[in-house]
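User: I'm writing a short methods note and want a consistent example. For Urease accessory protein UreF, I'll paste the sequence; you return only the structure tokens, no commentary, since I'll be parsing the reply automatically.
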Amino acid sequence: MNEVAPTTALLQLMTWLSPSFPTGAFAYSHGLESAIQRELITCRSDAEEYLHDLIHTGSLWNDLVLASLSWKAATQEDIAFLCQLNELALALCPGEDRFMETTLQGDAFSKAAKPWGSEKIALQLDSADLAYPIAVATIAATNCVPLIATLAAYQHSFCANLVSVMMRLVPLGQTDGMQILADLEPHLAELSMRAATASLDDLGSTTLHGDFLAMAHEHQHTRIFRS
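Assistant:
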């Protein structure tokens, strides 16, 4: 695969994973709304600890492994394995909210990414539901965007969105929010390298409390976010 120029790849990732790209990411809290309502996150320290767990041993790690394998499958035009990865990504969702979060964003991303060839990919996958990390990784591979850069940008977008949620609900100030993102940089860089060489055997999540909070959100009486 001939990778695109670094500047082009950077511009594409900035577009696809920007808050302005119409996936509706701002509407999802990934269960954070439940955690904050229960006063489990009340300060910057709590917020960093919660995100650290999601990154290293939670849903984001699984997303990264699936995205990495999907990027490689798309590069090799292994559509059968790509479809299997999408089915696995959907099966790993611990509840209705998480399933809705990944499929609605995956569908929205695919529709918005038509200028980069997403229609052809959607036809090849032939699935009613497309998981968000699969959609992003496949578009990146199809456009020859490097794997490490794709994984790093995906992580940053995920974390930035959740920090935005916490800035609104905890509330955290902008200074604390930016400090959290700065503190996470070495973790995101290290995980990008790990995920790039990961296999299906590396999938696994131990953040059960976070999963339970996400499921609790489905029955929350007052909701601002969709998940």
